[in-house]
Design a protein that fits this description.
6 copies of one chain form a homohexamer. Chain A is 31% helix and 28% strand. The first copy, chain A, has helices at 89-92, 97-111, 116-119, 137-158, 189-194, 223-248, and strands at residues 26-30, 38-44, 47-56, 70-77, 123-132, 171-179, 182-185, 197-204, 209-216. In chain A, the strands form 2 sheets. In chain A, strands 1-2-3-5-4 form a 5-stranded mixed beta sheet. A 4-stranded antiparallel beta sheet of chain A has the order 7-6-8-9, sandwiched between helices. In chain A, helix 2 (97-111) packs across helix 4 (137-158) and helix 4 (137-158) packs parallel to helix 6 (223-248). Chain A is globular. Strand 9 (209-216) of chain E pairs antiparallel with strand 9 of chain F.
């Protein structure tokens, strides 16, 4: 907050103390589930999401006989993953609109990089369960969900059921937002709740776009600001994809 | 978008026969409801959405006593608004994830241009019901929903309950997509179902962004392609806002 | 109904200003849906109901293999079709008892005049959605639903799938009630909410009865009063059936 | 109904063997519940309905402070009250449209003869649970429900909470139908499932009409046939009301 | 339980006035349902449960083709079976946890004594509906449910569909609890609501255990106290099994 | 349990290879949640349950004003905590009977050792979420849930809101079962699915009983076998309580 004459960037201090383009500490721990065909625990700082991929050798009725497989995702938050306890969706008897939005987004993101025909008539269900939430759970879920999916597909290859992993690109996701007028990367909860705008980017390893969702929380934002968010996101996703590839031994 | 000098636009024919940057015929009919405080029927070609705004002089419990009002939206499709009949959500006992996504989007878009403090402790509920669907129902709903909202707020002003309409900007929305590699504006159903990517833009009258949602349907898209979509959207929204303002007498 | 020589009809003024036996202005607009096999928009004064008939070339499991088809109906009201906004049934997660009663009534009424065996193993679903309500929505739905059904069946005949329209009679419906002790026809909302009794009559073109539902709202009514209601209804339905036939070109 | 001089009643035999105007054996057993303020077990032949009336000294929120009370009814069938077992509504998670129709009918019928203002700000809930079904459960429920209601109100009078029973008339109900072209009274299940038309009449002790519901099952019916049904019903209800009054010591 | 020579049983008085080891008056009335394959009405004092067994000659999909049948149970309470009225589960749209616990217990208890392979590929559904509740409804339901099941199986034997009743043991159930520090048998509602602990025992005719459920209501209990409860239960179940066998003519 | 002199324990090998009285490896990790007032991750071998305790300074309406607090529990399994994936309860829209049974059991167990009056008018909600399941999830949940509850209550003491932790006893739970005729302690999934009987014991630190639930899976069991199960459980719970106390520093 004290601004030395030449150092303008120092004038600006995010609640997290990070630089505008700085990711939180990201970790990826694979094979955390004894049962799932693929699994990982991904952390973006204090946000922790358990991702498991389950292979089912059959398809739901409406997808059968089309010569292709399916990848879908489900998302949930443990009731006390949040700062104050939220009601359990199973007890309320329905999933919120937010939950449904997020799980649809994860599923679309994973399908966008999977060759569903090469997958064959089977289904992979990727469950992303938030153990602890501190902002960015949906982007962590996509990034970790891809790893769990890949591990499960590797297992099919290992078992001789597929010749190679039917994935065309890596995919990862990150948020960026406008905080006090400044684009910043990877918002945590405190930053997110005071940001003017918030966007999520789902990008592939060859730099293309799978999903973009940008929302003005308080104030509409300009095209230039949006370009700033996208630049931050591209740099962030590159780092995430490098970590995924290292973790998966690609 | 930039077509080489000799490149015959004629080679490229959208299913609708429209030019890439051409909107469908858009109409706005106000005051269609005998009961609602504000209402309009908006058509984007064959897509028809009935928008009504209802004012309630009380707030739901969790919003009370905060010195501000609220604007929210609900969205529905008549069962046979679609090419083949869809099941009635009321009969299934729940709204789909898609419905919830859309109504949350409409609500956020309208709140982004409303001064909730100036609105006072009252609620406006904007219902957007699709009578006939042919692509672009959510963008029609936002564009028409703004008109219904404005009419209802005018009524409050007319009744002396508000000194002026507490709206800061106009807001409208349009879709753009990539069809056979080419950015095109305002996709109808046939175009949408064969597009490679699809994006919705919610923009204000001063050219800022309220919401962006871009989704790769088949293939990730590039940053340049996305820029092309945004350029189309800006031109489309400008036309929609001009129509809104004319309709509202602004 | 029979007024003594000197008895001034002028003494008795319905809220609507109509004569006791006078219908509201009734209009029927066909072909209003681009997608449905049959459709019409029916108005009884300010009451407007959109009726669509959808043909499905398969039957629900419990109806299969019985050598006959099925006609069923669904009913809904847009949230702001009413004077004050009602909650959306899809959002509440269930249809009210009133909704279910009405859609069962519409379905029974339409089946009563359809030759289900001649229809063959297919189903017609008639959706009746109230765009604007001002009393008499269920009778408008039956009257308009019959027109939508007939149009859809004509389409099957036109496509060579049926030799002739498998409908034995026209069917239409009207309400009558006792208002300040006097039988009156076709109650609007203001009349209905102050009536002592209310009855709905579903009658065929040969003057027979498909359904009668009479309810004392405030006070039980006499057999003679009920006879008065039935006489009014017969005259009203005759007019409605004439309009249906003219509209359908029968 | 009118049989020619020599016309052998023997030619016409109802499945039950009863005469056209003949009720089944009707019994009413009061005080069958140890807990309810009023209760009875009513039988129409093999149809058995347990009716209890519960008094609650408070009203649901939307009825409070209007200076009157309320009478409402709920209806249910035990899963094996029927010839073949039906699914339990509590397990399915919702009440059928039929159940809701019936309980609304019972509630309206009982309210039509109760002075709600004299009842004061309390509620009576009448539960009608079908222990065994053989046709006519809704009419049995109304007839028995009135007795349970009256007993509960007598208890309030006995406790000094009301000066007198706030009931203006007795109310009872019976079905009549057209079976092989002939009006017959009080259909049992076998008769009901082969009848051409079916009507339920809810009538008061002074011969007025509270509810009429007539439905053509197979074939529309004529005005004369309907008059025949009503005449049968009037005679049947007179017998039921005599039994109620005797049971209640009126 | 063992009272010292001079020991003043008189000092210890259960609310019911019964001796610690004394059952309420138990009655079993068979064949109370005209439709069910097996039925009985069982009373433990004022607790009355109607038990019906329905045979279905098909199995739910997940049980088919395993060379065995199935026995399941459902449980419900009429709304006014209780001291004060409870809400109807069908109206609330779900069964309470308590209801589900009880019906699962009844089902397990009946299956434990049934030879499911000998039963063949059919299902018996035992419905236990509480008409009046005064404590011990689940134990009454198991004891009566066994009788209804046996009667239904006898009917299959009578029809030549089974060579003999595929039941290996009788099964019955009773509660015991600790009331003012003393083990007592067969608690009624008043006793149950003031007991320190409460246990339910499901035992077979050869003295073995099918289910034990013991719960400290207020205060944990000792191993010796639990042994006392079990001794009471064994004596109580022996009496119930004798009554079952007499009723069934075994 | 009593093995004849020469009877080789070697003859008897549990699937897990453990001795009959041997617990799995048990671990307790505290403070695993950044948000919850109390939390732990408990493992019984491969079974892992995340337990969090959330304090709410208000009570649900029906508990208010009674001069006491409340402790309740919720239970859930992640979809792929199990060997094959289970459907997500939030997606199905309801909790299974098993889930409800378990969460009711956990809540009763924790309340049995808590002084609710000393707790004051606040509520503790203990969420037990199974991350990985391999038998014994409910007993792990009770044992870990007590630790989470105690930690949360310590926090209230630390904040000066309570003079001391209002807990009277420690409580822990363990399963025991009959496997090939032999009582064995702490069944894992493989053992549980082939056991003849299965029981869960919830015991306090002073050796008293809070809950006992014993179920014959295949064959009723004898009183002596049940005594064997209880003896094993007492030894197992003693070890668990020692671990709890060490972890909590008691």
């Amino acid at each position: 907050m004290s601004s030395p004459a030449f150092a303008p960037m120092t004038e600006f201090t995010r609640p997290s103390g990070r630089m505008p383009h700085e990711l939180r500490s990201i970790t990826l721990e694979c094979g955390v589930s004894a049962h799932a065909e693929g699994s990982c625990l991904i952390s973006f700082g204090r946000t922790k999401v358990l991702c498991t991929a389950s292979i089912e050798e059959s398809l739901p009725p409406f997808l059968r006989g089309k010569g292709q497989g399916w990848v879908t995702a489900e998302y949930g938050m443990l009731p006390r993953s949040t700062h104050t306890r939220s009601n359990r969706e199973a007890a309320k008897g329905k999933q919120t609109g937010r939950t449904q939005e997020i799980q649809r987004l994860i599923g679309r993101s994973l399908r966008a990089v999977t060759d569903l025909v090469a997958l064959g008539e089977r289904q992979v269900i990727v469950d992303c369960d938030v153990l602890q939430a501190d902002g960015g759970t949906r982007t962590a879920a996509i990034t970790g969900g891809f790893v769990a999916l890949h591990l499960a597909l590797q297992k099919l290859v290992g078992a001789g059921k597929l010749p190679k992993v039917p994935v065309q690109q890596s995919v990862a996701a990150i948020s960026a937002g406008i905080w006090k007028g400044m684009p910043v990367l990877d918002l945590d909860y405190d930053e997110d709740s005071t940001a003017e705008a918030d966007a999520n980017f789902v990008l592939t390893s060859d730099g293309r776009i799978v999903e973009i969702q940008g929302t003005a929380e308080a104030e509409p934002f300009s095209r230039d600001q949006f370009a700033g968010l996208m630049a931050l996101a591209e740099s962030g996703v590159a780092q995430l994809i490098a970590l995924q590839r290292k973790t998966l031994g690609l």
